[in-house]
Write a structure and sequence with these properties.
Layout (H helix, E strand, L loop, with lengths): L1 H8 L4 E5 L7 H15 L5 E5 L3 H7 L12
Parallel strand pairs: 1-2
């Protein structure tokens, strides 16, 4: 969570997150995703998340892309 907060302070135009929920407690995951989405309304930029928790990611996303395992 600290790394995400530090990155948001730089006001990036694009922030990439790879499995931000990996290894975190469910309450912390909700807090992390909730705060990231609240912050996006007040700033210019895009947050791209690669996440296996599709239900949570799709609930918060404005756009979503799904890839199929195996690459074809």
């Amino acid at each position: 969570m600290l790394a995400v907060a530090r990155a948001l302070m730089l006001r990036p135009r694009l922030m990439l997150l790879d499995e931000p929920s990996f290894g975190l407690a469910p309450l912390i995951v909700r807090d992390l995703f909730g705060n990231s989405c609240k912050n996006k309304s007040g700033r210019q930029g895009t947050i791209m998340v690669v996440e296996q928790n599709a239900e949570l990611a799709l609930e918060l996303a404005s756009d979503a892309y799904v890839s199929k395992p195996g690459g074809s």
